[in-house]
Amino acid sequence: MSRKTSVRHFEENLTELETIVAQLESNQLSLEDALKAFEKGVKLSQDCQSVLTQAEQKVQILLETNDGERLENFDPESEQ
Questions:
Q1: Per the database entry, which stretches of residues form a coiled coil (predicted)?
Q2: Sign (positive/negative) of CA torsion 11, 16, 21, 25?
Q3: What gap in Å lies between CA 53 and CA 9, rounded to an integer?
Q4: What's 7's domain CATH number?
Q5: Which of 5, 29, 47, 60 could serve as 34's disulfide partner, Cβ 3.0–4.6 Å?
């Protein structure tokens, strides 16, 4: 899966997860439908977490291979 596809897939999953949460919060689903929605939401959440973990690992690799230079944490307060 390419990076663009991965990002699009992540965004679609996140949007679908938000829809499921709204449906569950509305209390308008039957118990059976709510359980199915919850199960799907858990799966979507796991998929999103996996993509985020991979992105975090890539960032860590980039930071470690930056020709030995260390990047400093961004502090927006010091920029003012």
A1: 7-34
A2: positive
A3: 15
A4: 1.10.287.1040
A5: 29
